[in-house]
Amino acid sequence: MTEHSASSTPYHPVIGIDLGTSSCTTSVWDGAKLIVIPGPDGSPTMPAVVGQNAAGRIVVGRPSMSDALPQIDGIKRDLGTDERLRLRGRHYRPPEICAFLLIELKRQAEAFLGGSVHDAVITVSGSAGEPQRRAIREAAGLAQLNLRRLLDDPVAAAMALGADDREWTYAIYDLGGGTFDTAIVRVGPEGVAVLGAAGDPQLGGDDFDEHIVGYVLRQIRERHHVDLSRDEDVRRRIRREAELRKRELSTTETTVLELPLLTATVSATVPLSRRAFEAMIEADVTKTLGYLTAALAAAELEHRIVRRGVDQVLLAGGSTRIPSIRERLTDYFGLGPDGIRADIDPAELNARGAGLIAREYEPALTFEGSRPGLLGANLRLRAEMADPNPAAALGEPDPPDLLPGVPAETPADFRPVTVATRDLLATARDGGRASLRAAYLAFVGAIQAAAPDRRLTELGEALSAAYDSAQLP
Ligand SMILES: Nc1ncnc2c1ncn2[C@@H]1O[C@H](COP(=O)(O)OP(=O)(O)OP(=O)(O)O)[C@@H](O)[C@H]1O
Ligand SMILES: [Mg+2]
């Protein structure tokens, strides 16, 4: 095991993150085994939700109880697009929303490990394109994490199985909330080799929820003669209930969606059977088997692996809890029930694989990104987040002599970097920070002179850049 100076804990402080559409999971090597880091509520997974609280602060990982407060879920689906997402009355780019998730996961990991974390291995859907990968790299930088490796989901899942002294051929079937990945992999003493892969970055449990929403809306139209399909709040309420009842149907044969007072005049009670639900998702499941066939074809072409050569099917992703999916897979491969492997919690599998890979990297002493403005951007995002620990909020230390204090009117976006700069200048003895000092004085001077916004933004950005370069060794 590697020694590290960040803390005296036994942990190897390079974390593995499974960045999912619906939830995120983090794992770490504790010196003897891999463990999944629990969130503040003790849960192993954090909902991939970024919302705003009543005070206008960003809250991460806690679905909002109030429909009146905006929240963004499933950001993974938007990574690599030009989508703009609205929160706190402003627009965010997808990597910024993703960065909020990573900042929170890093914070939770640091609280758990009792030391700093600067490095991570993050999973990405095997079918993700370059724009999506680039967006995750950017998000990691915004979260001040050194991204050691972007790990394809199927490789992560196969890694989690651990090595054996013989070679196994697995078909990995990973159906999560928003993406489907499948791969034929060979795992042996030499490691993991992907023989063929296919997938769909826009197919998962969220689509199943949408099918139920469509069904419920049709029922309401027939019974109440109203079309609520354009009402976003109504859709959101039905979707939430649909997701809950869908999970129930993995263990029961029937359920009922209870939707009181969707509008002032419409309440709905909609029974749903497992059979009816399975019929709704049938076409989607058939589509996944098509991808599986494509992955097998690639494995056959390049490595002469055929369907019968697959030893076991490895299930990953929450949606593989749906019984009909398991049945279709056993039929497809002609395997007995033992042919399906689901002994490792499908929700933790990929995070465990990422954690095992993370263990191979040396922890860094600091964040190594050097793009100008990155730290300033990180500080701005962090300043927008609700403080999980108010006692540790940014303080206002005494102004150092001759250096003007941070004006009360400092724009919120630049407040953290301004405070951090003043602290840094107050302790700098070497006089070697002349350009940072100049940037600070220019910015503070402009605020005091009530300069126009555009000028303030320019000078604030210049200060962020100067602060970033002052941090470089
Ligand atoms: N018991 C269950 N039955 C059916 N579906 C379930 C069950 N439990 C969870 N799910 C569904 O699994 C999905 C979440 O799975 P998971 O956490 O693996 O996804 P993710 O990793 O966040 O997403 P992705 O890998 O697609 O980016 C959700 O759509 C959820 O509704
Ligand atoms: Mg996943």
TrEMBL record:
<keyword id="KW-0067">ATP-binding</keyword>
<dbReference type="Pfam" id="PF00012">
    <property type="entry name" value="HSP70"/>
</dbReference>
<dbReference type="InterPro" id="IPR013126">
    <property type="entry name" value="Hsp_70_fam"/>
</dbReference>
<dbReference type="InterPro" id="IPR018181">
    <property type="entry name" value="Heat_shock_70_CS"/>
</dbReference>
<comment type="similarity">
    <text>Belongs to the heat shock protein 70 family.</text>
</comment>
<keyword id="KW-0346">Stress response</keyword>
<dbReference type="InterPro" id="IPR043129">
    <property type="entry name" value="ATPase_NBD"/>
</dbReference>
<keyword id="KW-0143">Chaperone</keyword>
<protein>
    <recommendedName>
        <fullName>Molecular chaperone DnaK</fullName>
    </recommendedName>
</protein>
<keyword id="KW-0547">Nucleotide-binding</keyword>
<dbReference type="GO" id="GO:0140662">
    <property type="term" value="F:ATP-dependent protein folding chaperone"/>
</dbReference>
<dbReference type="GO" id="GO:0005524">
    <property type="term" value="F:ATP binding"/>
</dbReference>
